[in-house]
Amino acid sequence: MHRFDSIHQASQALNARRSTSAELVRASLDRALDRDGQGARVFTRLYADSAMRAAAEADRRYGARAPRSPLDGIPISIKDLFDVAGEPTMAGAYALRDEAPAERDAVLVQRLRAAGAAIVGKTNMTEFALSGLGLNPRYGTPHTPWRRDEAHIAGGSSSGAAVSVTDGMALGAIGTDTGGSVRIPAAFCNLVGFKPTASRIDQAGMSPLSVSLDSIGFIAQSVACCSLLDRALADHADDAPALGPMPTRIGVPETYVWDETDPRVLAAFEAARHRLERAGVRIVALDLAMLHEIPQLNAAGGFSPIEGWHSHAERILRHRDRLDPRVANRFLAARDVNPSVLGAMRDARRSLIEKANAATAGCDLVMFPTVAILPPREADLADDRAYAEAGRLSIRNAAVANLLDRCAISIPCGGDAPVGLTLMGPSHGDARLLALAAQLESAIRA
After folding, report:
1. Which of 11, 69, 77, 157 is catalytic?
2. CATH-assigned architecture of domain 7-233
3. What is the pLDDT of residues 159-173, one digit of tens each?
């Protein structure tokens, strides 16, 4: 059977009866179960039986010329943060396998089922989503296809989500993005990763990390695929606006996102920038000096461990000896943070958002490298200091969109090396961002 690399391509084949959902889903499950593949690292749970039932139902609808949506019959993976009725939501932590089962599906899962998608499984992640690297000591760490024999990490925290797509175990993946957890693995795996404005998709039934920063996002092969997922799952997925031939101005920050950046990332970004300029895009320098306020804003440890501790304290204390110590220790370090500190952080964030909104008012989009580094080898992260440094550099750029409450998309631009280029739009400018990104994608990837 022909392997379809995109949701759009597979949906067209299903409509034309050139393939069946049963064939698509069976092929995805076969790859997930291949002992020589990444499946054991990618999934914390497989839904083989229910996915095949969903495929059979989709095929009946296609036979009657009545598919529910472009996702009908398409194999999709979901991050291990979403409630599925009747089973515990483990958030990547094997220690939580005996927790009380969810009583109902998360809203996101309900919407996937309503669209006819075949959910093939829950994907592996950093425990509680507290890292941009995607390591998991219990389930194993998924590896990017880039130089796979050297075991480079796929990025996180949605590590399994990205590799489920690169390795054909799903045609699209649902992840979460609190500081880049969709866009970092997308960049490390040469995929497209879209982080909507946080409020765009209902998060009911999703295990939280940071109530201030959490977003639900998508990983797929193209901007068009992410747009299809957005239209099916967002609360108010408005139609893409009519656009001219190209956006008039894209701003590139002068500072902050460039410090300690790998020369290969810089070279790939500059090459993509020149391609965009040749395509008629006007790119201007942008003064975003206020971004240098971010380290001070996060001086108490950052929103994720502090707010995550408030959400999960009882479970962390009960299971602390069976959790990834790197994750547990970050939460435990946040338990004594005074509530007034969190209030001051939220005030500082609001001020940062106002300053950034004023500074970017004249630009259609803001553009910068998604991640400052290339994917490190898993073996090189055994040292705690190396782990912390790689974590800091993996998340620094991507977290800007979360802190500014904006939408952002990462598009591959590196050729042989996995480098992502971020296009960041304004808060609630999601439909326009997706439309502009679709126009610019070919030039970025060329």
Report:
1. 157
2. Alpha-Beta Complex (3.90)
3. 999 999 999 999 999
